[in-house]
Design brief:
Blueprint (H helix, E strand, L loop, with lengths): L4 E7 L6 H8 L7 E8 L5 H8 L4 E5 L4 H12 L4 E5 L3 E3 L1 H8 L7 E9 L7 E3 L2 E3 L5 E3 L14 E2 L7 E5 H7 L16 H11 L3 E12 L8 H5 L2 H17 L2 H22 L6 H9 L1 H10 L1
Parallel strand pairs: 1-2, 1-4, 2-3, 6-12
Antiparallel strand pairs: 4-11, 5-12, 6-7, 6-11, 8-9, 10-12
Helix pairs in contact: 1-2, 6-8, 8-10, 8-11
């Protein structure tokens, strides 16, 4: 039987969480699914943990950290299946839910799909019910942090699927890739690349679908803290930088008419915030330094 799905995990120093994550993959139907673990230059033995837990899986150990985007792009280029599940190393999969999500790809217009990710084993607190764009064109996870009261019980169209556990049609990824097969934008390195990809897919005419089933449990890396501590975190800088780059790449005239005032307000807020939160200044420096590369990709999209 030809395999239909590749489960692709990218990890970096995740040895502590990998055993629980990989244990769930030992019970899925391996005659239908290929598994690939890509290690991003970890120093904690993550690749060996993966080899021991999944001896039949393809394990790729990279010498350096190429980022979420670069490592997944390497994996996409090796995929021989119709579908690929992008799977975080701290995500614990529910195969029954994933199998239900795969069913929507019977519609040839569907390019990506996901179900509900929860933050707790009891499945009471939602982590993501798919990504939508705010009025300021910032991608956010629907329902994040909310108690599940059945508010996401219907199939819906999304702006993007989460990079923590989203299923993609490989032909759709190849259609919207930048030059050289760059699916996730490698300049982003990490954060917002899933939103950027979703934006390109929708503009190319692909549907991105939410299926109201549980896909599994996702433990977030960035926990609540003081405002200043979060602003000083590198992940916040990446998110700001990549949001601005995403706007440059994807906004069109009609987006400016509909969303311009909200985008400008959010930009002004972060500019003012940068005056008191000095680490954010690095984000603006990186934004301007990367403009030649980003604007070149705008014309490809």
């Amino acid at each position: 039987m030809a395999k239909k799905l590749t489960i692709q995990i990218v990890g970096w120093n995740h040895a502590a969480v990998l055993p629980a994550t990989l244990a769930t993959l030992q019970t899925i139907p391996h005659d239908e699914v290929a598994i690939r673990y890509i290690d991003n230059g970890s120093q904690d033995g993550s690749a060996q943990v993966a080899r021991q837990a999944l001896p039949a899986a393809e394990i790729i150990a990279l010498p350096t950290n190429t980022g979420f985007a670069g490592a997944h792009n390497l994996g996409f280029a090796r995929c021989a299946t119709e579908l690929v599940l992008v799977h975080n190393p701290d995500f614990i999969l529910d195969w029954t839910g994933v199998a239900k999500v795969l069913e929507v790809f019977a519609d040839p217009r569907v390019g990506a799909a996901q179900g509900i990710l929860y933050r707790d084993v009891a499945r009471t607190i939602i982590d993501s019910a798919g990504i939508v764009l705010t009025p300021a064109l910032n991608g956010v996870d629907r329902g994040a942090g909310q108690r599940d009261g059945g508010q996401f019980s219907a199939v819906a169209d999304l702006d993007a699927v989460t990079g923590a556990a989203g299923v993609y049609r490989l032909s759709a990824l190849r259609e919207v890739a930048h030059a050289g097969g760059e699916v996730f934008d490698e300049d982003f390195f990490a954060y917002k690349e899933d939103v950027d990809l979703g934006w390109r897919m929708r503009r190319a005419g692909w549907r991105i679908v939410f299926v109201p089933v549980a896909m599994g449990i996702h433990s977030r890396g960035l926990q609540p803290g003081t405002l200043l501590s979060r602003l000083g975190d590198a992940r916040t800088r990446y998110s700001l930088r990549n949001w601005v780059w995403m706007l440059i790449k994807n906004m069109r005239g009609r987006d400016m008419v509909r969303h311009g005032i909200f985008v400008e307000a959010r930009l002004l807020f972060f500019m003012l915030l940068s005056l008191v939160a000095w680490p954010l200044l690095r984000a603006w420096r990186d934004i301007f330094r990367g403009l030649p590369r980003i604007t070149a990709k705008t014309y490809e999209a």
